[in-house]
Amino acid sequence: MSVPQKRKHIRTADFRHGAKLHKGANGSHYHPHKKPRYVDLSDDDLPQSRKKPEMNGTTSHHKMVNGHTLKNAKSKHERNGQASPSVNGISAGEGSTTKKPNSSANTQLQEQRRQLPIAKGMCREALVEEIKKNDVTVLLGETGSGKTTQVPQYLLESDIAGTGTIAVTQPRRVAATSLAARVSKEQATPLGTRVGYAVRFDEKYTLQTRIKYMTDGMIVRELMSDPLLLKYSVIVVDEAHERTLRTDLLLANLKTIQRKRNAAEDAKGKGKADKLNPLKIVVMSATLDAEKFSRFFHNAKIIYVKGRQHPVTIYHSAESQIDYVDAAMRTFFQIHIDQPPGDVLIFLPGQEDIESLQKSLSFFTTHLPTTNPSVLILPMYASQSPTSNAKVFDPTPPNTRKCILATNIAETSITIPGVKYVIDTGKCKEKQYLARDSGGGFDTLLTRDITKSSAMQRAGRAGREVRLSSPLIPFSLLIKHDTQRAKAENINLISHLPVYSALKTLWLLGAIDKDQKLTPLGRQMALFPVEPHLSRSILASSPTTSSSSSSSSVPPTSSQGCTKELLTITSVISSSSKLFLDISTSTSTSSSSSTASARIKFKHPSGDHLTILNTVRAYDDISSQGSKHERKEWCKKHCVNERALTEAKKIREQLVDVCRKLGLDPELSCGENEGPVLASLGYGLVGNSAFLQPDGSYKQTMGHSIIKIHPGSTMMNEKVPAIIYDELVYTNQIYARGVSAIGKNFFVKHPALSQRQA
DNA sequence: ACAATGGGT
Prior knowledge:
Elements: H1 12-16, H2 48-55, E1 69-70, H3 104-115, H4 123-133, E2 136-141, H5 147-157, E3 165-170, H6 173-187, E4 195-199, E5 202-204, E6 211-215, H7 216-225, E7 232-237, H8 245-267, E8 280-285, H9 290-296, E9 301-305, E10 313-316, H10 324-338, E11 343-347, H11 351-365, E12 374-380, H12 386-390, E13 400-406, E14 419-424, E15 427-434, E16 442-449, H13 452-459, E17 464-467, H14 475-489, H15 491-509, H16 520-527, H17 532-540, H18 543-549, H19 563-574, H20 588-602, H21 608-625, H22 628-637, H23 642-661, H24 675-684, E18 689-692, E19 698-700, E20 706-709, E21 722-730, E22 734-741, H25 744-749, H26 751-757
Parallel strand pairs: 2-8, 2-9, 3-6, 3-7, 4-6, 7-8, 10-17, 11-13, 11-14, 12-13, 14-17, 20-22
Antiparallel strand pairs: 1-9, 4-5, 15-16, 18-19, 18-21, 19-20, 21-22
Helix pairs in contact: 5-6, 7-8, 10-11, 16-17, 17-19, 17-24, 19-21, 19-23
The protein binds one DNA strand through residues 171-173, 199-201, 215-218, 220-221, 242, 244-246, 349-352, 381-383, 407-409, 428-431, 445-447, 528-530, 574, 576, 578, 582, 592, 651, 654, 708, 710-712, 716, 729-732, 735.
Protein name: RNA helicase
Keywords: ATP-binding, Helicase, Hydrolase, Nucleotide-binding
Region (Disordered): 1-115, 539-561
């Protein structure tokens, strides 16, 4: 089989997410000119050696010695398993610690556990031994090795965890919940007892829970109330290679926490320190990034675990696919008509593509001869309800082929039973920051090609894969191209720009001071689980706090409190789904007018923010009087998305809790006098402001870009001297979304802006 | 003159 060559991308996100902005748990802070104390985890120092193994990365049959441990990853070639024979065969290690099966289903489950690569040979013993010996262990496990489900159980079944909880962090919600369900079954205990999970708005665990799967964002939140994470005796950071800001932040904090806790343990005998339980850290990664994590933790031991149980056959499309949705559809039918039973998983970049493919698939499947099995199409993406996402795990009905259309939500750590074929469009979406200096100054969400490790992860979801990306681009050419680009744009500068920009925003909001130290205001802001500009707006709505904490960069406070209103508006803005729905079925002209009329009904002359407030107030009126049915009808009639409102309500409850903790009155209301609402929003959105230009467009106050008001805004046809907006979206032009008119005077008074204009 | 949204709290 030929070795497919895959494009190596410069990932802007890696620069943005570089490990440089981290604040240590001890309050240390970022200095742009200082080198970080710890080894840089970002890709800036990407060694040449990494590229070479990657070329072999997609070969389907990795041969790796089971349980083979290497200190500090010195011999990289061994990882490609050149010709090392596998030493399977000795199925030791399952004797004494295995639970007694209590049913035939459980017997089967335990047999499956024993068949996992990680359970074979001496792997389990070696693993437990190493983790016992070392404070930090880096585990490089290939897809399908079983590390995510088994390692926590091994830790539990040995005495490593003591009486504490084992936390296993995941980058995705569905992964955390479905893993907990799976491992619960393997432990033969009800979900939420011995094995549980915690994701936002949904948790199932008790104080007795020993293994807790959770999203990394969740544990980062817990860090604020429990800075040493004393609840946990072992923290397993899974999918560490995903490298988001959160995982980097978590790893940086864990290093500090471990130093404190384990030092206290050493000093215990001398009676110096309080009794702190020591912390074990296990970092699990599916890619060769393991070396970086090892270096970060003072050359922690790296353990390699062999991968998948069944070889994956990868088919590439013969040529580059431009219309990848169409290509995915044609590939699906090739599989459906020619191939034996087995469910299909299709990876697509976003909701829009998923919906469009769903439409065409369901159209064509109804026209198939009845001799074919029927097709059950199941979409899966984060902004869909958890219940709908959970449907993909249901068993496939008889004489049916399940076809799952997923974003990268399904990329890691989930196993969908029955999936035998994966069709990968090779695309994903990612937020990228477009630096001010290159005409931007805002985030973009663009479709791009996936990375090599993503491709491997996706392939790992099944036994067979059809990949629609083109393998024809010569690898060497791309490296050259990337180097040129890096040179042209001055890579070092680029890597720092977003950081500077983020710091500037925080400074503008008063969250950090000139030395980049978190201010008391910033500390309060961080407690709210919303974007900084929104938490700043909430705090501005309470007269007492903003006057007491106001620094020189903050204008005088509004006289009247309006926290109640701000909580409503910011929770709706934070919701992941849109408040107003467009019914874009067949009648395009009439539907757009009906959406418009729905908005006009609640439209507030000042713009979208108070329109949101009007809508929620109207909805609350209806729900307090009417039945559930009437409420639904009302939403339908006014093109209001009830899911956005229910999600906003849950977010609002969280925000209310934070307010109470801070001693703010969440009921503080300005009633019908809505002036203070916009004034408060202005505090947070000061960087998101623009002035009217003679030609009717707007120009950023804090950037050079010309922007237009988004056609979905109530302000679309209005010409006002100045606006604030929630965000910019970049499509053919730069559009401002969530727009309100604001008095020009507010900004003239703002020191940060007047300074700039002077 | 025309609307593009991955993942996480």
